[in-house]
Amino acid sequence: LERSRRTGVVFPLQKLARYLAPGADTARFRLFQPGLAALQRAEALFRSGRDHAIDYVSSAVRMDHAPPPALPEVCFIGRSNVGKSSLIRALFSLSPEVEVRVSKTPGHTKKMNFFKVGKYFTLVDMPGYGYRAPRDFVEMVEAYLQERHNLKRTFLLVDGVVGLQKTDHIAVEMLEEFGIPYVMVLTKIDRASRGLLLKNVLEIQEFVKEKTQGCFPQLFLVSSLEFSGVHLLRCFVAHVTGNLPTVEAS
InterPro entries from the xrefs (predicted)? Predict the structure, then answer.
């Protein structure tokens, strides 16, 4: 892609920053800004091959059913119907044999689903909270967050159209209480108008700045339909799991 179009696909938050008032502080829009080489190395991690298998490993409703914590791990949590499984399927789109079940029915994910990315890291799809959450959601998720010592980063998904909801605030409070490092990901950005999306981004960034300690200051914007922001998110996952130790500035 030409440079301007590539920026819009890879760095949707930076594209949005163009519409801020002159002189606005955009430092938190570009804290993680990898170069093309780093993006390509991260992409290779998400592409399965003969010596690099990407597989669904197992599901668990209790920690004693979880696979051994042998690799660095990331988990994805969010409200039911926030688009969590769709995003994970987009992340694994370079390996279409990986089965990530996506349902039109909110609350489809009832268990913790573990995916192993070669010998590099594990990705966990957590049940959704809020509407139609599993009855034992709190016990399951709290136990996971507190006991999973190989967890490197939690990705908290927020609907880019409606912004932070009451249930999201409860999730933030839980992560803050446990001292879990996390990052917020705004989903479904293709469904929001530019003005609405910018409003939600600025409000959430202010919330992160004023009310959180463990949240990475930069938001990640994604569209599982248009793949905007997916390349950057892959790169960040590779980085926080220790598989991309040096990230070059572009």
Answer: EngB_GTPase, G_ENGB_dom, GTP-bd, GTP-bd_ribosome_bio_YsxC, P-loop_NTPase
